[in-house]
Amino acid sequence: MRKRIGLAALAAALTAAALTGCGGSGTSGDELVVGLTYIPDIQFAPWYIAEANGHFEREGLDVRLQHHGSSETLFGAIEAGDEDVIIAGSDEMLQARAAGTPLVTFGVVYQEYPVVVIVNEDSGIHSIADLEGTRVGLPGPFGENWFALLALMQNEGLTEDHLTIEYIGYTQQASMVGGDVDAVVGFSNNDLVTFGFAGIPVRAIETGDLPLVGIGQGATDETIAQRSDDLAAFNRAVSAAIQDIKADPEGAVATAFESVDELAVSGDRDAALTILNATIPLYGDGSLSVDADRWPPMYEFMVDAGLAEPGLDPALAVTSELTTGSRPPN
């Protein structure tokens, strides 16, 4: 027997459905699993705030944020199908694409590239050209520190024969203080400010323009094809969170510490605020816009530098269709 529905109940159901439909344009209803690489950190504030301030929910998205363990590879989870979105360097995703992982950058979070060369305040190094004959330290021959150093060297006509490159792991401060290196390559919103926390007087060398694109949001070809509405909504939610952060950095730190247990246990709020304030300029206007014309020269550099396999159409590694204000390729 069919149960009869009264008019009042029917009206209430229709109203609820209409309100649900107003929540955003995420359409699949499936969970969106987002990989935040490595340990919890205030640098992941856009995603923490998007969740805590309800931006994902307003876009009709069911998002699960998960951090990678220290033993996980950067793209292992998304390659295995355990994640739908990865937060990583757009250049790193391009490198992975050339190696056969079908990743596509669909939003660029860091509109400014974050890598700088750091020297002691009284160092005689004042330009990238001055690195000739010096010892430069960085974690290893991988990732954005490595990409940036090679690009800087190329810009100045330097090769690895012109300087000594030391792989120092994540011991930048100890290596500088101990005199093991003359300069280190690091992030403006992390390594540079942590020298300040330690009371070590340093300065950053102007790097100029680099053929690289920084932290972005990526997904596989399959996810781009099947869940484009969800990914566009995800971009909007993260963009809205960035606007929240820019409007009230101190409030964003408080929200992140209240919503992420690991930050509350081990974090320093004053340090986190300093890092977040150093990160805000990297967001640009916060739109996550994608300039697809930057991918061909980035790929050309990476191939020339031995960082990527040749033969890829770099247009396959990026889409400008899921953010507002993006530029399609010419």
In percent, how helical is the residue content? 25-40%
Mean pLDDT: 90
> How many strand elements?
10
Side-by-side strand order of the widest sheet: 2-1-3-10-4
Structural category: alpha/beta
Evaluate the radius of gyration. 22 Å
Structure description:
This protein has 330 residues and is of the alpha/beta class. The longest helix has 20 residues, at 228-247. The protein is built from 14 helices and ten strands. Helix 2 (45-52) packs across helix 10, helix 2 packs across helix 11 (249-259) and helix 10 crosses helix 11 (249-259). The strands form two sheets. A five-stranded mixed beta sheet has the order 2-1-3-10-4. It has a five-stranded mixed beta sheet with strand order 7-6-8-5-9. Mean pLDDT is 90; it is low at 1-23. The chain is globular and about 55 Å long.
Topology, please?
Layout: H1 7-21, E1 31-36, H2 45-52, H3 55-58, E2 62-67, H4 76-79, E3 85-89, H5 90-98, E4 103-108, E5 115-120, E6 135-138, H6 143-155, E7 164-167, H7 172-177, E8 183-187, H8 191-197, E9 202-205, E10 215-220, H9 221-226, H10 228-247, H11 249-259, H12 261-266, H13 269-279, H14 295-304
Parallel strand pairs: 1-2, 1-3, 6-7, 6-8
Antiparallel strand pairs: 3-10, 4-10, 5-8, 5-9
What does this entry show, briefly?
The chain is of the alpha/beta class. It has helices spanning 7-21, 45-52, 55-58, 76-79, 90-98, 143-155, 172-177, 191-197, 221-226, 228-247, 249-259, 261-266, 269-279, 295-304; strands at residues 31-36, 62-67, 85-89, 103-108, 115-120, 135-138, 164-167, 183-187, 202-205, 215-220.
